[in-house]
UniProtKB/TrEMBL annotation:
Native species: Streptomyces ossamyceticus
Domain (Cyclic nucleotide-binding): residue spans on this chain: 20-129
InterPro entries: cNMP-bd_dom, cNMP-bd_dom_sf, Env_Response_Regulators, HTH_CRP, RmlC-like_jellyroll, WH-like_DNA-bd_sf, WH_DNA-bd_sf
SUPFAM superfamilies, A to Z: cAMP-binding domain-like, Winged helix' DNA-binding domain
Record Gene3D superfamilies: Jelly Rolls, Winged helix-like DNA-binding domain superfamily/Winged helix DNA-binding domain
Protein name: Crp/Fnr family transcriptional regulator
SMART domains according to UniProt: cNMP, HTH_CRP
């Protein structure tokens, strides 16, 4: 809290909102899943490609994915992490536009795929599901807007500390060394999330490593001192 005001990272992290399937009544959820067919993806498989035509939506059952987008200048941004209960590709399916982002499996993924025509027909006959989908879209946009506003006032160092704390909370596993982040994100992916260059993030991680705040290996980070990260974030609201 900052003077009684809630900050974006206090309650709207990457994945701490209610996923789509959890918003549905049991009967609606079962009916929607029955419309599709099961599908599996291996780790690091590209599930959806940016700019491709929309043909289907995916409902995630197990496993986590990353959502990324590449700008015209080649810069790749990490937009979100999506996991069990989430829906992917619904925006393009409803608008008829090409996909706005690429989705990649961060681990083995189990999902249900629903053809676009069958999905839109289901929504036409299920107003409650349509309302829940609209609510999800609204919540995602609200979280994105809040994060953009809050992060405009932070340095890259502070943004990286916020991101690491979010991942500790949502994807941290306690080990003998410390709290290991279970999602293997690269330095480029961290850079895309905090709106910086890979070189800048590498320097900041080296600094944190030298201060024994984190241990870094290839696609692996162990947080040793989350209290130091909280102190870095606290500096931005002092």
């Amino acid at each position: 809290m900052t003077g009684g005001r809630t900050r974006a990272w206090d309650d709207d992290g990457f994945d701490d909102r209610v996923p789509f399937l959890a918003r549905l009544e049991k009967e609606d959820r079962a009916a929607l899943l029955a419309v599709g067919r099961p599908l599996r993806y291996r780790e690091r498989a590209v599930i959806m490609h940016q700019d491709e035509p929309s043909t289907h939506v995916l409902l995630l059952l197990h496993g986590w994915t990353k959502v990324t987008a590449i700008a015209a200048n080649g810069y790749e941004a990490l937009l979100a992490l999506r996991g069990p209960g989430d829906i992917l590709g619904e925006g393009a399916a409803l608008s008829g536009h090409h996909r706005s982002a690429t989705v990649t499996a961060l681990e083995p993924v189990e999902a249900v795929v629903i053809d676009q025509a069958r999905f839109t027909a289901f929504l036409s006959d299920s107003p409650q599901v349509s309302l829940q989908l609209l609510g999800l879209a609204t919540d995602r946009q609200r979280a994105t807007d809040r994060r953009r506003l809050e992060w405009a006032a932070l340095t890259v160092r502070e943004r990286l500390a916020v991101l690491l704390l979010e991942l500790v909370r949502t994807h941290g596993s306690r080990t003998d060394e410390g709290i290991e982040l279970t999602l293997g994100l690269s330095q480029q992916e961290f850079a895309g999330s905090v709106g910086s260059s890979r070189e800048a993030v590498a320097r900041l991680l080296k600094e944190l490593r030298a201060k024994q705040v984190v241990i870094t290996r290839r696609r692996r980070i162990v947080v040793l001192r989350p209290d130091i990260l909280r102190r870095i974030v606290g500096e931005s609201s002092a």
